[in-house]
User: What shape does this take?
Amino acid sequence: MLSVKDLHVSYGNIVALRGVSLEVAEGEIVAVIGPNGAGKSTLLLTIAGVVRAKQGEVRLGDAPILGIAPELLAARGVALVPEGRHIFGSLTVAENIALGATTRRDRAAIAADIERALDMFPILRERYRQRAGKLSGGEQQMLAIARALLARPKLLLLDEPSLGLAPLIVRQVYDAIFALKRQGMTVLIVEQSVHRAVAAADRTYVVNSGQIAMSGRSSELHGTAAFDAAYFGMGAEKGVR
Amino acid sequence: MIFLQNAIDAISLGAVYALAALGIGLIFSIMRLINFAHGELIMVGGFVLYGLAGQPYLVMGLASILVVAILALGMERIAFRPLRKASPATLLIASFAVSYLLQHVVLMVFGARPMGVDFLAQFGDSVELGVLRVPKLQFAAIIVTIVSLVCLALFFRRSRIGVEMRAAAEDFTMARLLGVRANRVIAVAFVISGVLASMVSLYLVAQTGSVSYKMGVNMVLIAFVASVIGGMGSLTGAALGGFLVGIVSVSLQAYLPVDLRPYRDAFVFLAFIAFLLWRPQGLMTRRADMERV
Assistant: This one.
């Protein structure tokens, strides 16, 4: 489904990604974890077309997508839930959700999908006519995910879905991610919080200093000494892969 | 009674300023561009009326709206689209360049002297309401502005592209990530801005009966001030700012001592400097816009 090869990204003189390669198969949930500043968000923003890469290749299916504008990528089925949610605070919850379906024209199916999203996050049904800026952080995160699902994405990119949320809300958000997994959705999650992301993901990549320090099946990686070393920045120096 | 007369004058002048400020505010809210060439859209609208003088007023008015809307679209396509990723300062300088270019093209073709145009001359007649005498043009300005504001509000709330434009005004990158087409949203914003500019030119030409290559300069400055007062990035704020500037201008004209009235504009701008010292973000603004402004 998604193939990233030798991706290099810089912000001026600051190198954010140094030759990152990863694969996400159809129906798979893949986690990219790493400490703050490792380059995780840059990876997602580059895949979504917001940040330009210096070098490398990104393919969705067989098609190269690097350098394509975000709105065209959205039409091809890439949906990003960015860090910080980025909901439209002055618009209502209903308008925010409907904007998720911007690239679609099938009205009846859109209405059904809105109902499904509201069933997944019942609190949004209660807040449906309210301004999104009035929602709590957790409700905004649910809204951001619901909005992304309205696009019926082929590939869902989740950037730090648990960041800044209370533990109870994090559990609700991850319950939704588990539900997406059962539906067979392809998801790439970026997280600092290791445990939940690794529990949800089929496979995990550890990123440190803009490089993949380690990768493998989540169940085999988590809790190993090599995993901890990679996460805390010693893996890359030792050549752990 | 004098107060009521002044109030009508203030609201009608504010209505025109509100239309001009909305044109500036709409483009800023989406592109972070303060388009000083908006004044030249107003000016070109006036010259279309001049060029079609003698035709039925409806033809003159519709042609002016159409030409200015197309010019606004062309301005975006040729001057601003290639600079879309440039800094706001670069965009601002580009807007000055477009402004001077258009002014000097018209200066070369038509010369510097104002030229008379017969457009809605009978709207200069006054309607007697008891002791009040209200020019028809003032009524027309108030009604046209109210209808335009209602239409714009419905457009932004009810239409798909309108909601997309509100989303883009709040967070352009996120809107694009959802599939909102940047080119389409910006093009529609420029067309609406052009239509608003042409409505201001219809008012100005009907009021003064003349056109000149600098006729939009003063109006765009006032519109800019009004949109800053209202809160850059807020369309409601831009409209309110326009009305406020109109009300303050007419009030000062009416109530300043006679000797000071020639300096009215200095007092108007002094009042708004004091206002901005008190509330630099303007009447209404979003937190996200405060940093940008």
Summary: Chain A has a mean pLDDT of 88. Chain A is about 40% helix and 25% strand.
